[in-house]
Amino acid sequence: MTLPAAVLSQLETQTIELPSWAFGNSGTRFKVFATPGTPRTPEEKIADAATVNEFTALAPTVALHIPWDTVDDYAALGRFAQDLGVGLGTINSNTFQDNDYKFGSLTHTDAGIRRKAIDHHLACIDIMDQTGSRDLKIWLADGTNYPGQGDIRGRQDRLADSLQQIYARLGDDQRLVLEYKFFEPAFYHTDVPDWGTSYAQVAALGDKAMVCLDTGHHAPGTNIEFIVAQLLRLGKLGSFDFNSRFYADDDLIVGAADPFQLFRILYEVIRGGGYGPDSPVAFMLDQCHNVEDKIPGQIRSVLNVQEMTARALLVDAVALKAAQDAGDVLGANGILMDAFYTDVRPGLAEWRESRGLPADPMAAYAASGHLQRIAAERVGGTQAGWGA
Amino acid sequence: MTLPAAVLSQLETQTIELPSWAFGNSGTRFKVFATPGTPRTPEEKIADAATVNEFTALAPTVALHIPWDTVDDYAALGRFAQDLGVGLGTINSNTFQDNDYKFGSLTHTDAGIRRKAIDHHLACIDIMDQTGSRDLKIWLADGTNYPGQGDIRGRQDRLADSLQQIYARLGDDQRLVLEYKFFEPAFYHTDVPDWGTSYAQVAALGDKAMVCLDTGHHAPGTNIEFIVAQLLRLGKLGSFDFNSRFYADDDLIVGAADPFQLFRILYEVIRGGGYGPDSPVAFMLDQCHNVEDKIPGQIRSVLNVQEMTARALLVDAVALKAAQDAGDVLGANGILMDAFYTDVRPGLAEWRESRGLPADPMAAYAASGHLQRIAAERVGGTQAGWGA
Amino acid sequence: MTLPAAVLSQLETQTIELPSWAFGNSGTRFKVFATPGTPRTPEEKIADAATVNEFTALAPTVALHIPWDTVDDYAALGRFAQDLGVGLGTINSNTFQDNDYKFGSLTHTDAGIRRKAIDHHLACIDIMDQTGSRDLKIWLADGTNYPGQGDIRGRQDRLADSLQQIYARLGDDQRLVLEYKFFEPAFYHTDVPDWGTSYAQVAALGDKAMVCLDTGHHAPGTNIEFIVAQLLRLGKLGSFDFNSRFYADDDLIVGAADPFQLFRILYEVIRGGGYGPDSPVAFMLDQCHNVEDKIPGQIRSVLNVQEMTARALLVDAVALKAAQDAGDVLGANGILMDAFYTDVRPGLAEWRESRGLPADPMAAYAASGHLQRIAAERVGGTQAGWGA
Amino acid sequence: MTLPAAVLSQLETQTIELPSWAFGNSGTRFKVFATPGTPRTPEEKIADAATVNEFTALAPTVALHIPWDTVDDYAALGRFAQDLGVGLGTINSNTFQDNDYKFGSLTHTDAGIRRKAIDHHLACIDIMDQTGSRDLKIWLADGTNYPGQGDIRGRQDRLADSLQQIYARLGDDQRLVLEYKFFEPAFYHTDVPDWGTSYAQVAALGDKAMVCLDTGHHAPGTNIEFIVAQLLRLGKLGSFDFNSRFYADDDLIVGAADPFQLFRILYEVIRGGGYGPDSPVAFMLDQCHNVEDKIPGQIRSVLNVQEMTARALLVDAVALKAAQDAGDVLGANGILMDAFYTDVRPGLAEWRESRGLPADPMAAYAASGHLQRIAAERVGGTQAGWGA
């Protein structure tokens, strides 16, 4: 089946940012399994990301994580990336691995530690100035493990103040995106646990502050596409961290656990005007490839997003609205399901070939011998990981 | 143990509003078990509520549900209540039992049905004018059962418009409180599923619109006291619908399922300035007594809230702050637990007696023979229930 | 795409039993919406089920629910069904709507009430003798709402004794299938809450007792296909009650909420030898069409099962095993996903036509005018429902 | 309040085994915070456990984890422990940290790796012979992250075979206890995810195989006390791993998250004959002290179990049964709650003093300066941790 031209033209501009840390080793508190070929440096991570883009033309930028990707010369790193056909994207701060942050960072009761955490974010913005990044993404591990351990209310007030200081430093074309997470690593309360909190905090900051929605950061049963619709309506959906989960924040490949949910999310993004080159909504991956190969894991992920976007673009919006207005429950649901069940893969393969890309990027990558090559080359040194 | 005078003086002003419908029959989709003595009229429900107040001095007002409690003369109903020592409280609207509302009420695509739903709320405000009620509580069953059945985004926009029309009709001393609910009776999406949505909607309305937090309306694992703290911080916590749950919206007796959670909630209410006669936060019950006796079920409920408030008032806030600031996790937690584990029941019994109340309201009610009396008297007619 | 002959031959024998009560009105504790054309009698329910079978050739039997489907002459009812091309199937007992069962049935502490509940099941077996039904399905509402209300352990022992008495009455070709359910209508504890309990109870009874797995009766996040694999391995998977859910026991159309889960379940059924005419595993629907039309709702449901079975049959088992043995995570997952994403609908449409069936049963039913006809004919009388 | 002698005499024999690993550093995948004084050797862990016992007289044994606690001479280790007043208890196997086990251990498709995992367990039994331990506890990380990655059914069959080989090696007085876990570190399927699986597997082995119930290893909303009652009824509850959780397997201090749940669990243990010196049920802790001090964290934990056991022993079983039989829901619940709300702490303090123990072990430990002493002494070396 050839896909409609209107769908293909919308797919043409799709971009999905890759996280540099997805190419490093990751795991659980029980074990991190290392694999041959894992990058040792930010440059090698970027090279891997560029490889994903080479096979898919879907991932033109790489997000950095500070301090995991700290380098002396970010301009040089940007040129390195550019030479490989990709750019540097979102800067992710990290205030969860320094001993000082055991009891909080932007929410800490100790003024000195809170200052340190704020300063780290200002330093991240300095890096953004050098990399030309638009977004500073803030995910906080702040929270408590036991009732009474911290003052929930006071922490929220300090968070607001800290964010205000960070926000004030943003350049005109820079944004702050605040991610929320239901739980982990804190097990009783999390300082930004839900979209409501993230929304209330960024709404207080101003137009350059937005919400980041990580698809794995919700309570069981949460209707995520509703949140997408609501945040778009409120003008505050800044970006997605895509991944999938069966239980908690499993960080599996996006679309792997509940493909229909991914379809519904993407449909609602499109419905709400969040899709396309002019949209403020950035698509990113945030995943862990604990047991599968990392580069093909990322290729699989961007393809999943692309395929599901194609299905969501196929929804007959006019017929759907008519069925909805008529109270035709089965008819309306059927229109949505018809798009979901359409096999867009042959059409996408054909289209990829027409653009000089491999019809089947997974097979092409496997056949390329790239994984074997980097495994042979990248010997010695310390493999990248979370450094927990 | 005699409770500290400072605690007792704060308990003195505590009031918990009773829902008239708690005295009617309720159940599940599988079965509603009727019991002898169940009220047949709004007046009999009010009489039952007055009985709860008589034994506890905790429940001076009764919330009405329209149309379940529709009468010809609300002024007369108010006088009837007053004669029994109670007042009429919150007015609850109902747009979930008319066939027109099968696919929505304030969110409906059909302008006529939406108008009807808005008008119902205006009629409720008319009643409030007669009863002197402050609060109009809106809980919506609006939502869909299947993906695609409705347009999530469009429904939210229509909801905002409907609420605006209702809000405009409020008197100076009247409030609109918007309740949220995770799911049920809609099983795919709910139009007001979480505090974030309720907050965003009422924030758009103005100062007289607040959020109603029903303790049973959250996703599994949700930290409710965090929401309490956040809404108080945002100045938008209008009222509580107290009940408890193990699974979904079980509507069990408040404090029955997780007493420690109730303690944490009440602590955070106090911490955030939400407790006391000057607070804008109203305490209400919203429960179903499916298998237990209703009047003692309500007595048990208000006592649970009172006892847990006493424990929460016992928290040594100064010591707690010191432990929190020192990063003393076990110490801070221990201070909270010390209050929770304190047996306040003897002290409350003593205090009740000093105020001319029964030391043990449950035992006193059982000994009063009241239940047997109303069972004998209330013969014939149609027992009140949800009329589903 | 034409489906492989090996797949079509396996689909040829697929049967899915319909529940008579799916054609009656259903709803939530908040509201039951009635619809024109709803059956008034067991005969009309059977006629509706026969209509589903007429359009799909997938549903040759109807399950009855006693007492909802009580008639004087079951042999006559069987002939009535036969004349319409369908047979009578599983008999479902009901011990949740009599006032005596407020605190339990097969688990009740009162010997007389427990006797009554056992006798009801014996009467159901009498009916089975007349209808020629193989299966007695027992789902119990037994449980408690409050800690302490009942003695969990004693109730389990009485359940075992009651089941033993019922089991003893089974004929040689009859079976008892025991359904489990996580919660509802009981909200603290359920006497058969999980597959382990159902398994332990039926294992103690003997070979004619099996477990019934209702896909909506699990805790959030439960891996249902694991339970399928385990019960097949233990030789105790007797039947499925298919439906779907987003939150609790939503009883939505099977496959509507998480189609990929349905695929995984059906794959594991096939993998474990639970599929086919010689399998002991019976496929049934157990759903509520609260807001959608009932007959097309059932047609949609059996088509969903058929389509998903076709996808599961397409899995390349040899390639899958090779990838699994090689530790090729992405490869193995890809093989499964390839089958899932295959659009089997055109192939099934073609095949249906070749068998004299409508290519698109949903469209054919809509075009038939049947719903309008029964709405016009079925006037007066009392529409069937749960009678709660 | 002085506690009844009957309660005190039952408390006298209470023992709670401590996990050696609770004294090592632990954390999340994001960060492990090290603390001064953390043990470097198995001996230091045992010394810390002995300290907990010294202050509480509740923890006379320590569980070992192999290989984390591997030593050359287990007899010498046993004598070392004995000199400190404690004994060596359960041996825990570990097949989740060797690279070979990336895709499974006792369930692996590769015969050699499976053999290695079996042999590890046989080696653990060799250690048990030397330490005199009764129990081999098996918790498996085996599972998969993606649908299709593994063959669920085949893995279960291999598990059964592996367990059989291990079971055959047990001495007459030794037991195998099989723990189940809902998820983590595997995120799609776990090979022993629920009590039903653990029960089915150990039932197939024989009388010396039992189930281990970790209180944090269940789906949200699971009624754990029901499982306790059921396993006791089936004669298969071997041991508890106590901890608490708000979300997933948070491994918080037992009783910290939901004290009422702990009460209900302990009540059901007592009710089912699982409490006391003659019971086959072993009480153990399995916790992580990520942010709180470890030794006082363990003291707090055993005290929580002791206090809650005292409350559970206070339940008036005769009155409870009478209320249950009478269908007196509020009465029965009230009897349970009365015990729960009783403040047993003063009575326990008094009783501890009468036995030569500190009235308040937490305060006594804090005053002892022990933590400061070991922090000063234990300098250099590598602190114990999970070594992930």
Automatic annotation (TrEMBL), chains A, B, C, D:
An example Gene Ontology molecular-function term: manganese ion binding
Claim: Cell wall biogenesis/degradation is one of the keywords in the record: no
This protein's UniProt keywords: Cytoplasm, Isomerase, Manganese, Metal-binding, Rhamnose metabolism
Entry annotated with the keyword RNA-binding: no
Enzyme category, top tier: isomerase
One biological process term in Gene Ontology: rhamnose catabolic process
Domain of life: Bacteria
InterPro entries, per database record: L-rhamnose_isomerase, Rhamnose_iso-rel, Rhamnose_isomerase, Xyl_isomerase-like_sf
Pfam families named among the record's database cross-references: RhaA (PF06134)
Entry's EC annotation: 5.3.1.14
Protein known as: L-rhamnose isomerase
Species name: Cryobacterium tepidiphilum
